[in-house]
Every structure is written in C-alpha cells, then in structure tokens.
C-alpha cells in the first residue's frame, strides 16, 4: 500500500453509556476504495462521521493525508475541505438551482469568485453526466439525479478523499445504477473512497477491500473475494446470507430458535 490517505488508530466512540465504536484500526491507501458493510447499528456511519469530525471520537486518532484530524489544535474547516461526504439523503438546497447548489459552498467555504465557481460547477456536473441540468431545481430531478448533483457538489470542493454513507439506499432500484456508475468512474480516476453500502455487486467489482463491522469492531478486513466470497467469521456469513437472501435468513432463524428450545 502507498502511504495511508486515511488512518484510524484505536478509535472509540461512546454516546453516554453506549460504546458504539470499540477500538477501530483501519488504513486506507491513496486511491484505494474500501467498502464498509455490517448490520444496522454496528457503527458504520459513526465511523465515517468520526473521520471527518462530524463526531468527536472518545479515544484514538484519525489521520487524513498525514494530518492528525483528532489533534485538538487542528483547523477543522481546513480538514473538512479535504474530505467530501455524500449522505443517503442528498441535502440539496431546494431554493437554489443545480448550479447554485454547486457554487454556494465553493464561494462560502473556499472563497472562489462567481466565475471560477461556475466553471468548476459545470466541469463537475459534466463528470456526473448532468451538464444539461445546470439550471434545474432539485425538486424537478429524480432521486438518482439529485444524488449525482450531491456528488458533483462534493467534488467541486476538490476533496482528497470521498466518504459515502449508503448513497443509494434512498433510491428506487432503477435509479441506483446511474449513481453507482458515477462512483465507479471516480474510483477508476483514482479517488480515495470509503463507502458504506449494501450493494454487494458494487463492493465485489469496485472495492479494493471490504471491511465488515459488527458491534463497533472490525470483524473482517480483506479483498472482496475473501470477505464476501469466503468469509472467515460466522458473524460475516450470517450477515451476508441475510443480505443476499432475506427469506433464507428467516428460515435459518426459525430453525435456530427451534434448536434453542431443544436445549436444556
Ligand atoms: N448522535 C447520536 N447520539 C446517540 N446515539 C447515537 C448517535 N449516533 C448514533 N448513535 C447510536 O450509535 C449506534 C451506531 O449507529 P450508527 O448510525 O453508526 O450505525 P450504522 O452501522 O450506521 O447503522 P445503519 O446501518 O442503520 O445506518 C446506534 O446504536 C445508534 O443509536
Ligand atoms: Mg448508518
């Protein structure tokens, strides 16, 4: 691996008595794509949010591009500028057209002048295949198009790394493909990406590594072939069987309930 672009060391995060992250160690190299999978509540979003300091870790360190972002003296705004984040909900400004959505943060946060911001907005809209929607308002776009605008908005800030938190989970199935295609292209262009997703086909095809989390720890970390294709831990197998075939998992559960009842 080249020098880690993202490095997480001994990361813990508690909300009150609830310890959500229980010691996470993770390195993501420059240009690497890491998909994070795991059951609901396992701490995937909290991990992403700790990487860009939307949450303050209780313990441990996070480095991005060699800078310790958990250093109390760090310039948080400078750190956040280097990290693009895309959420399940697109969070576009409804009262601004697409160009406005892309230029506002560039002008406010980076101090770019109107013309430069507009040029960079146009470049990034083209990158996500939405050049023709520059003047559209979010309400007139499909969910998939809105999510691609949100990706373009993040890219327009020139981030070194991109974090995605279930970017396709809120979309109708027929709109998922366009968003994944944009992410696939970004990966090919060499963007460092950390992607929380349930899209196993995407993870298999695009990820360099898959990280399986459960109960606030990393249970498995390896190539997609290994973690998805040949999981070493029962917890991973159980999660994957549920995901790939929910009906089967229910049968399994009933059988194991039954087995439980037979025990003394
Ligand atoms: N701001 C918060 N305050 C209190 N508890 C929180 C907060 N954010 C998350 N939690 C708790 O932390 C745990 C992990 O949440 P997190 O959102 O990281 O899980 P997740 O793996 O992303 O789940 P999902 O797949 O449902 O998105 C949950 O028990 C959640 O209730
Ligand atoms: Mg989540």
UniProtKB/TrEMBL annotation:
Membrane-spanning residues: none
Keywords: Amino-acid transport, ATP-binding, Cell membrane, Membrane, Nucleotide-binding, Transport
SMART domains named among the record's database cross-references: AAA
Keyword ATP-binding on entry: yes
Catalysed reactions, as listed in the record: a polar amino acid(out) + ATP + H2O = a polar amino acid(in) + ADP + phosphate + H(+)
The keyword Iron-sulfur appears for this protein: no
Compartments reported by the entry: Cell membrane
Record-listed E.C. numbers: 7.4.2.1
Gene Ontology CC: one annotated term: plasma membrane
Domain ABC transporter: 6-240
Membrane topology, from the record: Peripheral membrane protein
Record GO terms (molecular function): ATP binding; ATP hydrolysis activity; ATPase-coupled polar amino acid-transporter activity
Family: Belongs to the ABC transporter superfamily.
Protein name (record): ABC-type polar-amino-acid transporter
Source organism: Streptomyces dangxiongensis
């Amino acid at each position: 691996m080249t020098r880690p672009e993202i490095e997480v060391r001994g990361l813990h995060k508690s909300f009150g008595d609830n310890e959500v992250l229980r010691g996470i160690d993770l390195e993501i190299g420059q240009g690497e794509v890491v998909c994070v999978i795991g059951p609901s509540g396992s701490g995937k979003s909290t991990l992403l949010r700790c990487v860009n300091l939307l949450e303050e870790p209780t313990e441990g360190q996070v480095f991005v591009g060699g800078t310790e972002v958990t250093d109390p003296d760090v310039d948080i705004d400078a750190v956040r500028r280097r990290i693009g984040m895309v959420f399940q909900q697109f969070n576009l400004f409804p009262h601004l057209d697409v160009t406005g959505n892309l230029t506002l943060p560039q002008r406010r946060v980076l101090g770019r002048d109107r013309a430069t911001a507009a040029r960079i907005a146009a470049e990034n809209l083209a990158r996500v295949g939405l050049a023709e929607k520059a003047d559209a308002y979010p309400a007139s776009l499909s969910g998939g198009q809105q999510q691609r605008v949100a990706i373009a908005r993040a890219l327009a800030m020139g981030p070194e790394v991109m974090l995605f938190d279930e970017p396709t989970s809120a979309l109708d199935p027929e709109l998922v493909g366009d968003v994944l295609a944009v992410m696939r292209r970004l990966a090919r262009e060499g963007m460092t990406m950390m992607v929380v997703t349930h899209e196993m086909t995407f993870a298999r095809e695009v990820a360099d590594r898959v990280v399986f989390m459960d109960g606030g720890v990393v249970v498995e970390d390896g190539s997609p072939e290994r973690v998805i294709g040949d999981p070493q831990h029962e917890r991973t197998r159980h999660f994957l069987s549920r995901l790939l075939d929910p009906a089967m998992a229910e049968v399994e559960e009933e059988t194991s309930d039954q087995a439980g009842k037979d025990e003394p």
